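Work Package 4 report. The design task specified in the project plan requires that, given a folded chain encoded as structure tokens, an amino acid be chosen for each position. We show below one input record used in the internal validation round.
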């Protein structure tokens, strides 16, 4: 289905044990694209469910299915897709996310003949059932790199990979995805590509990131998130050294709040409290964790007690 003069785009779907819920939907999102010159690369990370049967039920010749003989780990599977994509551009469509039918076409039309590292759209957040929880346009057009990342720190834009199309060679040139604990790996890759190779921003919302109910499980996971967050901030400062002071001051507040939100998912309460303390100690207490504890947990509880009287 090649279209003369149009670059090949790889939509890569790294997947693991999602056959029963979201995988078929992700594949359909790729097949429904109005941009037709696609390779749909599905990398099955040694799933133990019926992933292969789900994929084989699709007969579109653009699908290339690879079943890994061993589990590469999530990030290893991401990088397998990056390193084996045939397309000039690559979009990593995680197996539970969604893209609008005109996502790829809109991104390629926006970039035109410019040689930049990535193209971004706005993002909506959806739940397990696909209900829209929130959506945010992408106001990045016209912002300098430091203004762009400060806008992220101020919650004016998002940095979800579902909303991003990368120039494949640029993504490979920065080393693909990777971070200390492979928790911030996509954001680190975006930062490196943006600063080194530039970006194109579309304001329209064209992709959906699926939020799941999650229990973080342990304070150790919070510690890993904090370490990855700090690594990201260090790398961002190295990329934009003239703006180190403002990036550190604003970034620590943003990342502290983000990790406190993650700590709120730790169960039971005594582990959650330990998670709050870890966040505070990692970021120098730019936001007092006890203030957060009061606002997040004690204040709603007190209101509930008052209403019940």
């Amino acid at each position: 289905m090649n279209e003369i003069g149009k670059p090949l785009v790889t939509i890569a779907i790294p997947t693991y044990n999602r056959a029963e819920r979201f995988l078929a939907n992700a594949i359909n999102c790729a097949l429904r694209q109005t941009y037709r010159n696609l390779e749909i690369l599905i990398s099955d990370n040694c799933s133990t469910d019926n992933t292969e049967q789900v994929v084989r039920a699709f007969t579109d010749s653009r699908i290339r299915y690879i079943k890994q003989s061993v589990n590469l780990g999530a990030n290893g599977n991401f990088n397998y897709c990056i390193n084996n994509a045939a397309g000039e551009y690559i979009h990593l469509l995680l197996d539970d996310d969604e893209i609008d039918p005109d996502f790829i076409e809109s991104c390629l039309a926006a970039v035109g003949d410019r040689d930049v590292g990535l193209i971004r759209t706005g993002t909506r957040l959806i739940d397990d059932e696909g209900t829209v929880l929130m959506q945010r346009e992408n106001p990045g057009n016209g912002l300098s790199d430091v203004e762009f990342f400060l806008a992220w720190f101020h919650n004016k834009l998002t940095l979800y990979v579902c909303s991003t199309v990368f120039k494949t060679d640029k993504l490979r040139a920065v080393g693909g995805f990777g971070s200390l604990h492979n928790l911030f790996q996509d954001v680190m890759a975006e930062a490196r590509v943006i600063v080194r190779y530039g970006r194109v921003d579309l304001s329209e919302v064209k992709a959906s990131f699926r939020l799941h109910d999650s229990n973080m499980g342990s304070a150790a996971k919070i510690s890993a998130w904090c370490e990855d967050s700090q690594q990201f901030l260090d790398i961002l400062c190295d990329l934009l050294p003239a703006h180190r002071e403002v990036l550190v001051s604003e970034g620590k507040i943003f990342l502290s709040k983000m990790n406190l939100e993650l700590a709120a998912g730790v169960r039971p309460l005594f582990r959650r409290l330990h998670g709050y303390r870890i966040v505070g100690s990692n970021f120098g207490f730019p936001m007092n964790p006890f203030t957060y504890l009061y606002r997040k947990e004690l204040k709603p509880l007190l209101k509930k007690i008052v209403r019940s009287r």
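The longest strand covers residues 199-210. Validation will be extended to a larger panel in the next phase.
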